[in-house]
Amino acid sequence: HAYDFSINNQLIEIVQDYIYLGVKISSRKTWHMAGGLHRKSSGMKNMFALESNCTSNEIWTVDLRMKLFNSIVIPTAIYGSEMWGPSSNAIWDGDIGLERIQKLYLRSSIHIRVTTPYHIILEEFAEVLLEIHALQTLISFLQRISRLPNTRLSYKAIEVSRSMANGWFSQ
Question: What is the rounded CA–CA span in Å between residue 81 and residue 133?
Answer without folding.
Answer: 9
